[in-house]
Amino acid sequence: VYWCTIGILYASLKQFSEAFDNFMKGVQIDAQMGELWFNLGIIYEHCKQTGEAYQAYQKAISTGGDFPEAAQRKNLIETGETGREAIPNLKHPPFYIQDSLQPNKNYQFKEKIQKILEA
Questions:
Q1: Is the dihedral of CA 107, 113, 118, 119 positive or negative?
Q2: In which residue ranges of the chain is pLDDT below 50?
Q3: How confident is the model over 32-51, as pLDDT tens digits?
Q4: Which residue from 59, 68, 107, 119 has the fewest beta carbons nearer than 10 Å?
Q5: What is the pLDDT of residue 20?
Q6: pTM metric for this prediction
Q7: Nearest one of 36, 32, 46 to 3, comparing CA atoms
Q8: How many alpha carbons fall within 13 Å on the CB side of residue 101?
Q9: Residue 63: Cβ within 10 Å count
């Protein structure tokens, strides 16, 4: 998620080389994160590298995620119609707080404060 977020930030600044580098770092860590592959496809398209974009979109689809835009972009590349329409926005993967970061519901906060105040 980290590398994807950094890549999106760079892309929003039109620093596509840095965005590409961060997305690539992300897929080296988690090649099953379809959002990274989709975003690589977008970057490749911005750089007029449609063959690489096509492959990246295919990998996004193969991760099993919900990427209808990747299928649409692939079809546009196949028919040679890319560049005539706006390229879609980059995608950020969902972020879930791990259970270990959840507050402890059994923590006796009031009791701890009361003991401190009584001391």
A1: positive
A2: 100
A3: 999 999 999 999 998 889 99
A4: 119
A5: 94
A6: 0.74
A7: 36
A8: 4
A9: 17
Is the separation of the CB atoms in 38 and 91 below 8 Å?
Answer: yes
Amino acid 77 reads I
Q: Can you list the alpha helix ranges (DSSP code H) found in 30-119? A: 34-46, 50-62, 68-79, 109-118
Cα 55 to chain center, whole Å?
17
CB atoms within 10 A of CB 13: 10
Residue where the block lists tokens 């990747």: 70
> Is there a contact between 66 and 93 (Cβ–Cβ < 8 Å)?
no
Count the alpha carbons within 13 Å of 98 in the hemisphere toward its beta carbon.
2
Say which residue the tokens 């959840």 belong to.
102
- At position 69, the amino acid (one-letter code) is E
Query: What is residue 99's DSSP assignment?
Result: G
Work out the widest C-alpha separation in the chain, in whole angstroms: 77
Backbone angles phi, psi at 108, to 5 degrees: -90, 70
Length of the chain: 119
Residue 90, C-beta contacts closer than 8 angstroms, at least 6 positions apart: 7, 8, 11, 38, 39, 42
